[in-house]
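Two entries, shown back to back:
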Amino acid sequence: MFRAIRGIMDLMIRGSGVVVVLVLALGGCRKTPRRAGVSDASVAARAVAADAGALVDAAVATDSEVEADADAEVPGVLRGEPALGPFAAPEELCPALLARLEAAERDRASCARDGAPGSGAAPYLGTHTWQFEDPDEAVTRYLVFQLDGRWFAAAAGGFDMMNTSNGDVTVGRPSARDVIPGGAPELLFDVVETNSDMDDFDNVRFDEVTRRTVCSTGPSGQPSCVAVTLAGRGENHSDFAERKRYRFALECPFQPDGRVACRLRGKRPDPDLVEGLEDTFTLVFP
């Protein structure tokens, strides 16, 4: 059953080898089936998202050969990655991340606040940035949000120092918008990841990708986030040596029913660079 569904729905969410994490605190910010002033169409949109998640879960349960996370690889559905937490304070994030490592590895990892606190966007308050580097030199950045005294950490992007000489992650100013009908507003922020390197023959490799991350809280009560690719560009792409440069951009507006319709704009790049990025996506928050 799952193979049939997966054959029809083959989602592609591209990312780098390192994760940048957004830390947010939420309290009572759960998407509800209906609220005053929400149309039947809005309720139906929620049902579509819930049914999509249930369909994938049921398919995974019927095929013992499928990996546990296969339900996140469904085209047309962007399923939220559960956030870390809750934490009583943002400072608890670093000990929690270090605790995941073997004792011998902890001395080779680092975690610290990175950047000045910000005001956030109501109802997501109290922003901070943090950076974590694991023993394999994978750099992780964190953006911290506080609401109702609870703190959470959600994946956003990143880079791997083992594979690049210069990497960076820029997290844009967060905003709160009710882009999915019903319940509390979603948290939105853009992330730009850049990686550049030079080989022994002085050939420069440069890659940059821009994504919009959407965070919300579903029936589980645990916030989760999904990322939608908006643009990419590069030079001497490592996977396509014959291509000196590439560039693409997508328009991804939210529809009235809460789905995201991504369409390429301008000159169309080679199809293999944007495979799976141009679609109308249903966002599912477990």
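entry 2 starts here
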Amino acid sequence: MKLIPITCSQDQMQVLHEVISSHIAQYFPPGSADSSLVAREALLEVIQHLTIAMEDSVEGFMFNKRLRAFCTLAIENAQAAGQFDEQTAAIYIQLFKAKK
């Protein structure tokens, strides 16, 4: 498993937490098809890592590179819904750059 560091403030982590939580609720609700359960569980794990990082007051967290596509999609959906701000944009840029 390849991990990438995402450096962000506590506020940015909170925004990312909210964006991913909203994405899970919309696209991977409880009782989803079995094929969606893996994605749901993986994204819930990201939420758990964000929560721990926020509780520990650290500036960033390690992120499973395989989940980048799900998280960038969550941010793009937030953008389409008008919930995209500078903090979300900074995280999006880091995720996008991590493709290389």
